[in-house]
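Lest this sound abstract, we think one record worth quoting, the chain in one-letter code, the fold tokenised, each line plainly labelled:

>
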Amino acid sequence: MKSGNMLTLTLNITFKAALTGNRVVWVAGRDGAGGSNTDWQAMGTTSVQ
């Protein structure tokens, strides 16, 4: 969803049993022309049970 200069992306992710435990969610953003890049940033954590 786009609102002004804010973009919201919602993903439903399913993990396999072999990936149980705590995980860090990493994201990066880049403009359409490829000129600006945010580099990878830790944006949250999740626990897979």
Q: What stands out?
A: The beta strands are 2-3, 6-7, 21-27, 41-48. Residues 28 and 39 are 5 Å apart (CA to CA). The mean pLDDT is 83.
